[in-house]
Design goal:
The complex is a heterodimer. Chain A is mainly alpha-helical. In chain A, about 75% of the residues lie in helices and about 0% in strands. In chain B, helix 2 runs antiparallel to helix 3 and helix 7 crosses helix 8. The chains are: A mainly alpha, B mainly alpha.
């Protein structure tokens, strides 16, 4: 037994100061470990904070009223997904499902399936972000992975085709996609506001991508254009742009808090 | 909760009591909020004092944390662990406070070694101040050690509060202990006494 074993045991058992007998044997003769254990005992010092505590108590009691706890994680996930499904369904009902007639089963199932599954993961992550200490995701791995997977699928399932008025068609689809995303963003944002977001940048990207996937999914079902570059730039592009907008708004919230 | 050398002997509420107080706080029970503030504030204050350079800043952070807890108290779900929820908010308040002070030209000084060594005439078997030791640790290690020793959080609770994994918390704690060991060795009076002979 050595000093590293003592440090490792302390790190793995934070509340338990009872070390295994073999380690006590070492600690009895090791000055370095003795001093470390004595120092850790100093961590529980006393502070006179009674005046401040009373002041805080009075402040909070003055403004005390009952609150309705946040919905459960499952309820939040269902509400996010419900917004996703309802808006896609209404949009496709209004615009028409012309894309289903020209796409292969593989193209429809894979792209729409991935978008829906991605929306589910994002909804779950968003529900966790609403509670302090609820999310393990401060980084952008989840949204990045979803976009990467969708990009690979688009490149594998679609082919380039000659297309006149490429940019005009792309602009039209992008406008539809962004419009649907903006429509979805409103109920998502209204639900999100009830929570306490500690990582606005990550939450911004997640809600942006979730809203963007509404546009992507609806366009895949509605749009009959199967040119690879059209699908990539206009349909998937809507999701990418929305993610970037979410990141920008989250960054503003993080550093300047204009929405507080 | 770690009580250590506190002079008053009032029993500290258990974690289960604290979670019950939090539920009652959500229902606007004034006694519950008073108990909660009294129970959690000392540990939170020590947490902030280990992270910032002045007592005034730590007091400000404590006040701001409770105001933020008050504003988002509806996000605590009864039955869930309370301490990760509280410390996640406290961490966020600390980061916001640091950015605010940084914007008005506050700087933190990272110290690789402790600033003072006991003089030859004062060589005795004493330990350095706990806060001085903590100040020499990197921020992430300092945070984990403070939550462990001051807040008495478990590994899982610290992982939730810091949005990382239990493995990452263990690694930071282990490195922090090794660093503390080296710092203690650098100011060990016995070592210095033997060096001067």
């Amino acid at each position: 037994m050595n000093c590293i074993d003592v440090s490792r045991t302390l790190a793995e058992n934070p509340g338990n100061r009872v070390l295994p007998p073999a380690l006590w044997e070492h600690t009895r003769d090791c000055r370095s470990c003795q001093r470390l254990l004595q120092t850790l005992d100093l961590s529980a010092g006393s502070d006179d904070s009674s005046t401040m505590v009373r002041h805080i108590q009075q402040q909070l009691i003055r403004d005390l009223r009952p609150v309705r706890p946040l919905l459960s994680a499952r309820s939040l996930l269902i509400s996010f997904m419900a917004a996703f499904v309802i808006i896609v369904t209404v949009a496709v009902g209004y615009l028409g499902a012309w894309g289903m007639a020209v796409r292969s089963s593989a193209q429809l199932i894979v792209i729409v399936g991935t978008s829906v599954a991605g929306a589910g993961w994002l909804s779950r992550s968003l529900a966790q972000h609403m509670v302090p200490g609820g999310s393990r995701e401060r980084h952008l791995l989840l949204p990045g992975s979803i976009l990467a997977v969708l990009s690979v699928e688009v490149f594998m399932l679609f082919h380039t085709r000659g297309e006149s008025h490429f940019w005009a068609h792309s602009r039209t689809c992008l406008a539809i996609g962004l419009g649907l995303a903006a429509t979805a963003a409103f109920p998502l944002w209204m639900t999100l506001r009830r929570g306490a977001i500690l990582y606005p940048q990550a939450a911004g990207v997640i809600v942006g991508l979730l809203a963007g996937l509404v546009g992507t999914t609806a366009l895949e079902i509605h749009c009959p254009n199967v040119n690879l570059w059209h699908v990539f730039t206009a349909h998937l592009g809507a999701a990418v742009l929305c993610s970037l907008v979410g990141l920008l708004l989250g960054t503003l919230q993080e550093f300047w808090r204009p929405l507080d | 909760m770690a009580t250590g050398n506190q002079e008053h002997t009032a029993p500290q509420p258990s974690v289960v009591d604290l979670e019950r107080y939090m539920e009652l706080y959500q229902q606007a029970d004034a006694t519950a909020i008073a108990e909660l503030v009294a129970a959690l504030s000392p540990a939170l204050l020590r947490f902030f004092r280990s992270q910032v350079s002045s007592r005034q800043q730590a007091d400000d952070l404590l006040q701001e944390t409770w105001l933020r807890i008050h504003r988002v108290r509806h996000t605590y779900r009864p039955g869930e662990p309370l301490l990760p929820w509280v410390y996640a908010i406290a961490r966020r308040v600390r980061v916001d406070g640091y950015r605010r002070w940084h914007r008005i030209s506050k700087h933190e000084t990272a110290m690789e070694i402790l600033p003072e060594r006991p003089g030859l005439s004062a060589v005795r078997d004493t330990l350095p101040d706990w806060n001085a030791l903590l100040a020499a640790l990197p921020e992430s290690q300092r945070e984990v050690i403070t939550m462990m020793k001051v807040g008495d959080l478990s590994l899982e609770e610290i992982a939730r509060a810091t949005s990382t994994t239990v493995g990452a918390v263990k690694q930071k704690a282990h490195r922090a202990y090794e660093r503390l060991r080296k710092l203690l060795h650098s100011v060990d009076p016995q070592k210095m006494t033997s060096e001067t002979r």
